[in-house]
């Protein structure tokens, strides 16, 4: 008996040491790869511990048979989900229930106003669209809950530069929008301006995209500075309202409360273009690397969304006959597929992807 216990104790000690060694090495690789520098020994140890937990999650999930996606040790792998949640998500649902429903607001900023033909009846969404080639660059919101600002300016910028896709999509509705767009608008717009100045939202503590769009249209007189004159820091600074602004064409701002209806979301993305959407993020999404993400632990309640993204397309993986959404995130290009993710489509509104579509006309 004693012999057996001693043997097992020995075995555990040896395996614990060898685990520590492998983990230690991987953490060093990780630090080098992402140029991580920690303030002090305590922070380093906390990061290492989080990394080792995430390493376990990644190894475990990637070894599971039959999953359509893979996780990876990206630049967020040294953070527990709790820390990540506190610092990198930032969606605040409006407390007023009327602001959560369908909202269509006409804007009268008068800056380069234009009329739009909004006739959904003539539009049939294609079976698949992919706007990535016409998209704004993937950005990084850094340690700030400003996802709402990134999706708003992403959608605005894309709307302004949308004419490039007219060759790809032939619906009359889309073409009518092309006519009034201007591809040279592919300017990189300043999220920091929204973080600092948008009084309807809460800077790095979160916001709601449709509120921010309306704030731009009404209170910023429909203009947004470029990052060249209003740089991104990732923390709130003093609002500089008087920097030069690029006028945006905003005639109408739309919030379609699609309430989990993925067909409706497909109609909108296929006929309108990229839209701002909200999702529920879990620890697996933090570490997403590739494939079609599906998370059975995600809440399916549109009230529990915690992050905003831009849906830039949808389609079906022919090999596995799996439907997906193409989503652009604001966590930099080392996350996911160059900053994009494929998320499950038509699998019960997984992670609440089809709760809201928000865009401008
Ligand atoms: C905005 O669009 C509406 C129709 O949707 C049109 O009546 C109105 O004139 C447009 N506003 C401007 C400033 O062009
Ligand atoms: C995007 O552009 C690349 C390179 O030009 C091309 O190979 C690819 O087919 C394009 N994708 C789409 C969906 O248009
Ligand atoms: C497109 O936008 C640029 C930059 O604002 C402007 O100089 C140009 O005149 C615009 N072109 C059209 C056709 O509106
Ligand atoms: C939401 O989008 C669907 C699908 O295009 C459309 O039928 C519906 O009228 C839209 N609702 C609003 C309020 O825009
Ligand atoms: C969704 O969550 C909200 C808030 O937590 C709750 O009031 C509501 O009953 C939930 N809805 C469903 C269908 O579970």
TrEMBL record:
UniProt keyword Signal present: yes
GO MF assignments: cysteine-type peptidase activity
Q: Which domain of life is it from?
A: Eukaryota
SMART domains per the record? Inhibitor_I29, Pept_C1
Which keywords belong to this entry? Signal
Gene3D superfamilies (alphabetical): Cysteine proteinases
Is Ion transport one of the keywords? no
Q: Span of the secretion signal?
A: 1-16
Where does the Cathepsin propeptide inhibitor domain lie? 27-84
Q: Which GO terms describe its biological process?
A: proteolysis
**What InterPro entries does the record point to?**
Papain-like_cys_pep_sf (IPR038765), Peptidase_C1A (IPR013128), Peptidase_C1A_C (IPR000668), Peptidase_C1A_papain-like (IPR039417), Prot_inhib_I29 (IPR013201)
Instruction: List, for all copies, the residue spans of the domain called Peptidase C1A papain C-terminal.
Output: 125-361
Q: Which family does it belong to?
A: Belongs to the peptidase C1 family.
Q: What is this protein called?
A: Uncharacterized protein
């Amino acid at each position: 008996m004693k012999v057996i216990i001693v043997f097992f104790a020995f075995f555990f000690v040896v395996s614990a040491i060898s685990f520590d060694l492998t983990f230690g090495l991987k953490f060093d690789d990780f630090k080098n790869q992402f140029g991580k520098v920690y303030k002090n020994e305590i922070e380093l140890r906390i990061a290492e511990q989080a990394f080792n937990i995430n390493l376990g999650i990644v190894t475990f999930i990637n070894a599971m048979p039959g999953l359509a996606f893979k996780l990876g040790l990206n630049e967020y792998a040294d953070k527990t989900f709790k820390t990540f949640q506190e610092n990198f998500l930032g969606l605040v649902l409006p407390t007023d229930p009327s602001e959560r429903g369908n909202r269509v607001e006409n804007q009268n900023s008068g800056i380069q106003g234009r009329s739009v033909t909004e006739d959904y009846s003539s539009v049939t969404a294609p079976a698949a669209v992919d706007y990535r080639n016409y998209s704004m660059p993937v950005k990084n919101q850094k340690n700030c809950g400003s996802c709402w600002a990134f999706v708003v300016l992403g959608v605005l910028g894309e709307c302004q530069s949308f004419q490039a896709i007219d060759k790809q999509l032939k619906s009359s509705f889309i073409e009518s929008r092309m006519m009034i767009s201007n591809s040279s608008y592919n300017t990189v717009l300043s999220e920091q301006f929204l973080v600092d100045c948008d009084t309807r939202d809460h800077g790095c503590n979160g916001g709601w995209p449709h509120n921010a769009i309306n704030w731009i249209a009404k209170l910023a007189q429909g203009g947004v500075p470029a990052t060249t004159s209003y740089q991104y820091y990732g923390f709130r600074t003093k609002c500089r309202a008087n920097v030069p602004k690029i006028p945006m064409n905003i005639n109408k701002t739309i919030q379609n409360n699609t309430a989990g209806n993925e067909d409706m979301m497909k109609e909108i993305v296929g006929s309108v273009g990229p839209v701002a959407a909200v999702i529920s993020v879990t620890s697996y999404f933090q570490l997403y690397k590739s494939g079609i993400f599906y998370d059975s632990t995600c809440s399916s309640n549109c009230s529990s969304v915690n992050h905003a993204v831009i849906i830039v397309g949808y389609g079906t993986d022919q090999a596995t006959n799996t439907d997906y959404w193409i989503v652009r995130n604001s966590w930099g290009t080392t996350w996911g597929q160059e900053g994009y993710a494929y998320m499950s489509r038509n699998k019960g509104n997984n992670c609440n992807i089809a709760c809201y579509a928000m865009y401008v006309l």
